[in-house]
Design goal:
Layout lengths: L4 E5 L12 H4 L2 H4 L5 E3 H4 L13 E3 L11 H5 L5 E5 L10 E2 L6 E2 L21 H8 L16 H7 L6 H8 L15 H4 L4 H8 L5 H7 L15 H13 L6
Antiparallel strand pairs: 1-4, 2-3, 5-6
Length: 248
C-alpha cells in the first residue's frame, strides 16, 4: 500500500461465518499469490495475542493497493472494510492506534488556557479519542497496540512541542479536565434520580443556579432524569460539566 493509505477492518461488522471471504477471493494481490487479506489465525502465531476472532480477516497495509483499488470494500457484504487515503503522506507515527487494521490517530490539538479550541470533522476521524487522551482517560500507545509504551514515552515523543507542558501537567495531576459525556442517552442508565440531584453532585464551583438559568433547564430540574428528552439531556450534561472545578 502507498504510505499515505490505511486499512481498517471493523471487527463488529466482519462476519466470516456469513460470507464466502469475498474480500480475499477478489483481492488482486491475493489472486497473484500474495497474502494481502488472510484470516487472523493465519496472520498470528499460536500464542500471540490479537483482537477479534481467528476467522476474521486481517489486511496487510504493505501489500494492499490502497483506495484506488477498493475491491475488498465493494465486495464485503457487511461494509466491514474501509481503505482510506490520508490527505498527505505523514512522516510521524500515530499517537494512538486501535489494533492491527484499526483506526489510527495522528497528532493532537493543543488546548490554550482561556481560549476555545474547536475540533471539527465527520464521525470516525478521532475527535473523541483525542479528547479522551487530553483528559487523561486514555493512555496513548504511540501506534503500537498491545505494547502500552507508557506516559514517559509519550512525553518524550512530544518533547519540545507546544503540547509538552500540557501533557506533563495532566499526567502529573497538576491540571484537571472536565469532559461532557458523548452519549447523553446513557445517563439515565447510570443515574437514578432527579436532574437537580445529578447536578448537585458536580457543582464544585457553586454555580448551579446560574447554569440552570443560562441553559434554560429550570423546568426540568425537579424531573426524574429518565423523563428528559435528548436535547434536555444535552443541556443537563453541559451544565454538569461546566459546574466542575476544572482547568480545561
Amino acid at each position: 500500500m502507498a504510505d499515505d493509505s490505511i486499512a481498517v477492518v471493523d471487527l463488529d461488522q466482519c462476519q466470516p461465518d456469513r460470507c464466502n471471504y469475498e474480500c480475499a477471493n477478489f483481492c488482486p494481490p491475493n489472486r497473484t499469490g500474495k497474502n494481502c487479506i488472510i484470516t487472523r489465525e493465519e496472520r498470528y502465531e499460536e500464542d500471540e495475542p490479537y483482537q477479534g476472532s481467528s476467522d476474521q480477516v486481517w489486511i496487510s497495509e504493505e501489500i494492499c493497493l490502497g483506495e484506488s483499488c477498493g475491491i475488498c470494500v465493494e465486495k464485503c457484504p457487511f461494509d466491514a472494510i474501509t481503505i482510506r487515503n490520508l490527505p498527505q503522506e505523514l512522516d510521524e507515527d500515530p499517537i494512538h492506534r486501535y489494533g492491527d487494521n484499526g483506526f489510527a490517530l495522528y497528532g493532537l490539538p493543543a488546548p490554550q488556557e482561556g481560549q476555545v479550541t474547536g475540533i471539527l470533522g465527520p464521525n470516525g476521524i478521532g475527535k473523541t479519542t483525542a479528547v479522551r487522551i487530553l483528559a487523561d482517560e486514555l493512555a496513548p500507545n504511540l501506534g503500537r497496540p498491545g505494547e502500552e509504551p507508557g506516559w514517559d514515552a509519550v512525553l518524550e515523543a512530544y518533547r519540545g512541542t507546544e503540547l509538552q507542558e500540557y501533557l506533563e501537567a495532566v499526567r502529573g495531576g497538576d491540571l484537571t479536565v472536565a469532559r461532557k459525556p458523548q452519549y447523553v442517552d446513557r445517563i439515565p442508565d447510570r443515574f437514578d434520580g432527579t436532574t437537580r440531584e445529578l447536578l448537585a453532585r458536580t457543582d464544585e464551583r457553586d454555580v448551579l443556579t446560574e447554569l440552570i438559568e443560562r441553559l434554560e433547564i429550570a423546568s426540568v430540574v425537579d424531573q426524574s432524569i429518565d423523563t428528559l428528552s435528548g436535547g434536555e439531556l444535552q443541556r443537563v450534561a453541559l451544565a454538569a460539566t461546566l459546574a466542575r472545578d476544572a482547568d480545561f
